[in-house]
Structure prediction request, 471 residues.
Amino acid sequence: MSSVAVIDYGMGNLHSIAKALQHADERVEVAVTSDPDTILASDRVVFPGVGAMRDCMAHIAERDLEPVIRRAAAEKPFLGICLGMQALLEESEENGGTRSLGLIPGRVQRFAPGLADARGEPLKIPHMGWNRVHFSDPSHPLWVGIPAESWFYFVHSYYAAPADPADIAATSDYPGPFAAAVARDNLFAVQFHPEKSQAAGLRLLANFLRWEPRTSS
Amino acid sequence: MLAKRIIPCLDVDNGRVVKGVRFVDIRDAGDPVEIARRYDREGADELTFLDITASSDDRETMVHVVEQVAGEVFIPLTVGGGIRTLDDIRRMLNAGADKVSINTAAVFNPEFVREAAERFGSQCIVVAIDAKQVSEDPPRWEIFTHGGRKPTGLDAVQWAQRMVELGAGEILLTSMDRDGTKAGFDLGLTRAISDAVSVPVIASGGVGNLQHLADGILQGRADAVLAASIFHFAEYSVGQAKDFMAAQGIEVRR
Prediction:
């Protein structure tokens, strides 16, 4: 039986993601945990998170989880979600500049104030709700079976800006394109919430639970 | 582009959906899980559960409802009604809710909104505002409590801005003048609040037909529209509402 660890570091509600993983594959063993041994013994790792980057990095430091996350990210199929995607980059503008894990080159930026949509109406921040996602490479194993331009559910005020366009696995528009997903080797991360994105989200999670990437180590 | 959202609202009393649901394909009209599944299939963008249970002793029932729904329906869930403490919020989020809606508690203790946003993040804190028009020229609305019976003297626009400053991630705006009338949203109120705050606004109160939903977006500039009875009594499906809105040029998820 395969297993997946959802890293619990005190940033947000992980029950939704655990329930969605279980729903995506009823045979998989889902653990919501901060225990390094459990995380490193799992076949796959999900790195979720909501909230602010400074709190995220502080909570990781308090629990001494950074080495565990780095090891899991080097060795296992690894899925970052929302803040868990942003934390993979080098630095975030949030909280006056916060260093993050640096596993993907690039920065995390805030949506500029005063943005307007095509009708000229001001855009709200956070970017909250369902938006279409354009896959860079529809043949990536995590997009398999998901129709092009599917809708996914987003809630965020900051977005990742990877330095290397090759790391961008998908984009969405608000109002211009931003990275909705990044991928590099065994790392995959999404800005949206697959656990709240109905059929498309569940399929992405099911794809992740079957994914056998070549690891970078 | 970001879609405008349609949010069916379910009033739940002691674990049962009230106001009657008349879907022919639903065996148990009061079962929140069956109704949630039905709305999910129809394409609802989110669901809101309003706990109207009178006794706080029975609130645990709502926790079980949320647990059951969250195990089967994978779209955002908001729970409102009786959210007064950080522990109330924690229990609902742990049960699988994505957001909680704070109403009266914010009026009596605005700092509660700040504490909640700091603890759980603004993305899960919705502040519900019940407003009534108190002057036509210039137009002015005030916050009312106790189902629209008690005035507070608080100006609705200023109050909404204050709630956002304290950390509200979204505003659920209900016109107490229109609630239950089927005469349409108070578009002046909706527009005034939507233009005054940086966060998304959900329009509520008064929907009687599909044009009302479209008007809430196009004229009220709401980011989402919430309705109860037009969906519960199967007058319209969520899918029909989306087709109607799309025909008027509104971006919807279909």
Chain B touches chain A at residues 1-5, 40, 45, 70-72, 74-76, 93-98, 120-124, 169-170, 198-200, 221, 223-224, 253 (CB under 8 Å). Residues 44 and 107 of chain B are 30 Å apart (CA to CA). The radius of gyration of chain B is 17 Å.
